[in-house]
Amino acid sequence: MAVTSPTVTSAAPSPVPAVALGTVLAATIAQGMTGASVWLIPAGLALVLYLVAGWPGIRPVPRLLVAIGIAVVVAAMIRRGNAAPLPEAVARASFFAAFPVAMTLLREAAVTSPLMLRASRYLVNQPPGRRYWALTWGGHLIGLLLSFGALTLLTTMIRQSNTTTDARIRDIREKRMVTAVMRGFITMPLWSPTSIALIAILQGTPSLHWIDVAPVGFALAAAIIVLGWLVDRLQYRPRGVAPVEADPGPWTAVLGLAGLILTLTVLCIATAWLTGSSLQLATMLVVPLFTLAWATAQAWTGPAAWRAAIGRSIGQIGGAARASFPAGRNETALFAASGLISAGAVDLIPAGAAPWLVGLFAGHPGLFLVALVWLVVALALAGLTPMVTVALFASALGQSPPPELDPIKLAVALAGGWALSVGVAPLSNSVLLVAPLIQRTPIEVGPRWNGLFSALALVLLSLGLALF
């Protein structure tokens, strides 16, 4: 979902987008929990209503991708000779559109949390020797709760705290602090159950579960974060006496944030185990309830006023959804299009295409995965979002992977390509979000600031895929 605030106008925003996306979320959860295909009808109709209502404000590229997605599904039905591809396409498009909705609700509770603000201030105001580690892991952990909102929050606080009068030092500090946050944030798709990247990959690879990918993905994320620190240290060696920093406040704020993340993770895993559902579906169910509980805790004034606290929380979340859901129309269109394309393309790709492609690499599937990673990054640099390419590749290769292609390595390769592209591609959401906040161009924030790091990380990932 979009993380930018919607334009403020005199007229109240229409309730249609909020009601439509809320219906998509509820119907998608109901379909996943019950297995009843009838829930796809309200999910699909509500998604169509949302896109039609927001169509005038949707950019040309997402519009084009939606049209391509519809064409792919129609072609799949023609090839199969029946409407069987349609329910799968509606299910996947609704799922891809609904998951970020749940995370947007969580963000609305998080951005008003005093704990979140204290934790962010603690991370930003660390002394130079600890600042990179604090910000890069802070971007990673806060991203688990806020998604792109983590970039907005931390980048804004960096801008406010960087008040030195020396312009050269101020620019260097800003660059180092912003890149630290971004490098931590972009590794989140490698393992996080709240990342749309991993959701898209797992949806396209039914033989995999989150627990299969998470350990390897987290290890790779940690390695890339360490690489980012090494690049920073080599580029900016400490010189002179470090300036006195503002008091970061108590470290317990970060401990409280970690406790929140751990609690949410445990609740999602427990719900998946108790219901027998996927972790992705359990997350969609738990997050709205967790959001309500968190917002209620913030509004709590005492046991006697618990009804009022819940009422205020529902009003806060509902009002935020009514204001922010219309602003996410481009991202929602993109996610829905990715679901349509990835679901329909399976019927259009020849059955022997995947083994044939892997065979081109002389029986070395690791080299095939390396080529796949580079292709995802190259297409992102050319302007094609990894949401589309990764979802498509996951479906094409993950439904019936060739025997020599390890599904876990495939998932890690696709997640790695996604992660490394969003930090360097000038047209990626993360770069486009950060650049205006610090009055820089996307070319500066993407290729110039993160180009060397991204290239080295790409080489590191390629070596790992080729050798192990």
Distance N to C terminus? 36 Å
Q: Number of helical segments?
A: 20
Number of strands: 0
Q: Give the structural class.
A: mainly alpha
What share of the residues does DSSP label as strand, in percent? Answer: under 5%
Backbone CA Rg = 22 Å
What's the pLDDT, averaged over the residues? 88
Ranges with pLDDT <50 over ≥5 residues?
1-10
Task: Please describe the topology of this protein.
Elements: H1 16-34, H2 40-54, H3 60-80, H4 85-110, H5 114-124, H6 128-146, H7 149-161, H8 167-185, H9 196-204, H10 210-235, H11 252-275, H12 279-299, H13 306-324, H14 329-348, H15 353-359, H16 365-381, H17 386-398, H18 407-422, H19 429-437, H20 442-467
What does this 3D model show about the protein?
The protein is mostly helical. The chain has a domain at 15-108 and 201-237 and 277-467. Helices cover 75% and strands 0% of the residues. It is built from 20 helices and no strands. It has helices at residues 16-34, 40-54, 60-80, 85-110, 114-124, 128-146, 149-161, 167-185, 196-204, 210-235, 252-275, 279-299, 306-324, 329-348, 353-359, 365-381, 386-398, 407-422, 429-437, 442-467. Helix 7 (149-161) runs parallel beside helix 19 (429-437), helix 10 (210-235) packs parallel to helix 18 and helix 19 (429-437) runs antiparallel to helix 20 (442-467). It is globular, with a radius of gyration of 22 Å. The two termini are 36 Å apart. Residues 1-10 have low confidence and may be disordered.
